[in-house]
Amino acid sequence: MNVLKQKELNQYIRVPLKLLGSHGIFIMLAIVFTMFFSWLIEKKHGPLIYSIFVSSIYALTIYTDMWEIGNKDSRPYTKEKPHILKGLVFGIIASAVTIILVVLFFISKAGYLDFKVLNLVYRLWMVPFIGFFEAFGENYPWIFIAVIFVLPLFSFLGYFAGMKRFYLRKDMRRAVKKAKDNTQTDK
Question: Among 23, 65, 77, 158, which lies 20 to 30 A Cα-Cα from 152?
């Protein structure tokens, strides 16, 4: 195997590990956020509001990590070559742990494994989304599966935006300025 293919293959290991590391760090941050927002979590819709807040930060963290990689890959002097689905592949590989936990969660819920232990592990791993489980889990069990797609979706979006050099903040400012200019000329 030539050196170029080896480096590209290493990227398919290195980047998902980086995403898993980001997820691990975010678990710790979410637990700290839980302590700071315990007053909110005790309210009727508090866990849902908490999860919307924390999962938004989580999604933006994944998006930013992948934006940097997509931007780097799209430069002509780098050895890694960009591909439109590369971010999605990185996200799917990094989601392997989540996929395994979801499968084990449903197996344990069916009574084949110790539900108490696996439920604790699953909820700890998915702590940014715990409010969604509390709010919708009983009536909509698909929510447990839907969280699998958060990491691959934002990995894809971030990588693609970085590859195309789409600067979210700069483009939002430009849109706001354009809207402001249009409202001023309409007067």
Answer: 77
Instruction: Report how far Cα 36 is from the mean position of its chain's Cα atoms.
Output: 22
For the stretch 36-82, pLDDT in tens is 887 877 888 888 888 898 999 999 999 999 999 999 999 888 777 88
Beta-carbon contacts of 89 under 8 Å, excluding residues fewer than 6 positions away, are: 12
Total domains present in the chain: 1
Residue in the block written with tokens 């996929």 = 99
Calculate the dihedral angle through the C-alpha atoms of 141, 123, 12, 71, rounding to the nearest 10 degrees.
90
Taking the C-alpha atoms of residue 7 and residue 82, their distance in angstroms, rounded to an integer, is 13
Cβ neighbours of residue 20 closer than 8 Å, sequence gap 6 or more: 94, 97
Structure tokens at 58: 């989580």
Residue ranges in the chain modelled with pLDDT below 70: 1-9, 170-173, 184-187
- Say which residue the tokens 């890694």 belong to: 80
DSSP state of 23: H
Note down the domain range covering 18.
3-186
At residue 34, the pLDDT reads: 83
